[in-house]
Structures are given as C-alpha cells and as structure tokens.
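It is worth pausing here to work through a concrete case rather than discussing structure prediction in the abstract. The textbook approach is simple: state the sequence, then state the predicted structure, then interpret. We follow exactly that order.
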Amino acid sequence: MNLRTRMKTGLLGVTGAALLVGGLTAAHPATAQPSAAVNALSAMKVDAVKTAHVDAAGVLCKIGYITITRTSMCLDVNARVDVLRNGRPVGSATFEVKHSMTLKTNKLKWGESFTVGKARLVNASGISVSVSVGAGKGVKTSVKFPQGSRLGPAHKGSVSYSASVKKHKQLSNPASYRFTFTKPGYTIGTGGYKSAKFRCDDTFWSRDDTKRVKNPGCVFPGYAPVFSLSRSDSKVKESAKHILDAQRAITGHPGASTPLHRITDEKTIDKHRRAMCGRTHAPSGKDCDEYPFAATKEGGNPRRGSIRVISASDNRSAGARLGGFYKSQRVLGNDAYYVRIK
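Step two, the predicted structure:
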C-alpha cells in the first residue's frame, strides 16, 4: 500500500514532563513527634509522540505516534506514574494508552475506543485509575470505563461524542483525556493529554441557502485529503493532462509536492479567473482551463500558473468532481488538499 506520510515532532500540548500535578496533604501532629512520611502518587508523565498523516486508516498505528487520516485517528502513548515518599520515588507504574477514534463526514455523532494497557509495576501495587474525557463547547461526551480499576491488567473503555453545530457554523476542538490515580494512604496523582483536533460543520448549503446539500459532519482538518483525476478517464482526460503538465512545469508543483488551499469568496474566485483567462478566447464547445484552480489561494497568478483551452464538457466534468470532493471530504475555506493525476 502506498503511503504519503508527513511527520512532525510534537506532543499535543506536552513535552514529556508532568502534565497535571496532584496536590499533597499531610496532617500536622498535635504534639512534637517524628514527622510521618508523606506518601503521594506523582503526576502522570507522557512520552513525546510524532504525528503521521497516512493514506489508509490504521497504518503506522504504533506506540509513540498519533496517526490521522481525514476521518480516523490512532493515538498510542507511553505513560508513567511514580510512587513517592517524602517527594522521592520509591516505585513506579508504566503502561501504554492506545486510542482509536473514527469520525463521520455526514453525522455529528461518533465514537472512540481506548485501552489502558497492562502495567509494569515496581513497588506500585494497589494503584487504581479512572478516566474522564471532555471535548469543548458544543460537544457532549459519555465515557464507559471500569472506573477505579487497578493498574496491572489491561482495561478497555469507550467514548461517545455528540456535537451540536448551527447552520453555516463550525466548531474545532481536541478531545481532552484526564486520568486520576489513587492508592490507599496516598494523595492522588493526575495527568492528561489531548487528541488531534477535530472539526464539525454545517456549511454545505445550496446557493440560494434554502437546501442543505450535505448533512453536517466532522473531519480531522490537520489531514490534507487528495483529489484524484485519471488521464484514462475519457470524461476528464483533457483536464487531467493539463493539470499534470502544469504540475511538472511549475517550480514547487502546487497541488503535487505542496498543497493547494481552497477559497470560497466568489469575488476573489472571479478575480482569479479573469487574471488567468480574461484575455483568452475559447471557441464554441471549449473552455479556458486554469491551474492552479481559481478557487484556491494559489490560483490567479499568471507567473505561477497555466492555462489551456480544452473541451467544455471535460472542464465542467472535472469541476463537478472537484465540487463533489469538497463535499465528501468537507474541504472548507483555507483547508489544504493535494491533487494527484493518475
């Protein structure tokens, strides 16, 4: 399976240091006595991860990575909680936490499964874990997990999400995972991290604004989807050939080696078309085709673009497919995407 993978180092808001610190409490003796030991669980520490964008769900789903497609995420992290006595570590619990989230492009409800893996315990028996998940304003969550389970064996859980988005609006949040660790006689330890950012919207409406042309849904906007055309497809072969020739001729290959970015402002789109095709006469049955597309930030620049007179039906078929791609992948204004010619 061919993969297009772009990686960047980062950690969803953490750098391997403690994330959330549990407080310490100790009773003060009424009379002078030797100080009692202060027992505590440390804040959970999470190792740094890399982000990978791939073409197929589940690929590269391995520890130390957050892997996303347009609608799926796999997050797999190493975590550690230390057992402290008077502030010094005397034991530890190390374990893996693995998440799998799948969004729906035409629904505002989706699910996630996660596993708190088998723990390696060193002088750390009796630690229990509970999990809560939030997803920001406009999103309700429901967590199913055996709360208070002892670290040691693996424990599975799930999260149900339900978003609410108004007409022509969108929301963009990550899920926030919070873990609470308890042990009899010890103060609590806490910790957390975040998922990749998801986005839900209800923005696909007819030009007269009376009919929804695609139900609201959600995607991971950090993943740039791929729009494909084939030179062997008779309905769009001229468009495909023009795009491929243009990508080969333009330094930086907009849409191929670097992404295009959609724009939705009609005045700007018309301005781009005039800049590229305003002086080109297309005879009957023909259209002036421009690349990069007029509806992209990269369009409208004669020094960095290409035009060609092609069949009008071919040009409009390719345009209709591009519009369908925008809907199917929920490509909104400023979203990045790639163009691949087969």
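Step three, interpretation. Residues 94 and 140 are 30 Å apart (CA to CA). Confidence is low (pLDDT under 50) at residues 1-32.
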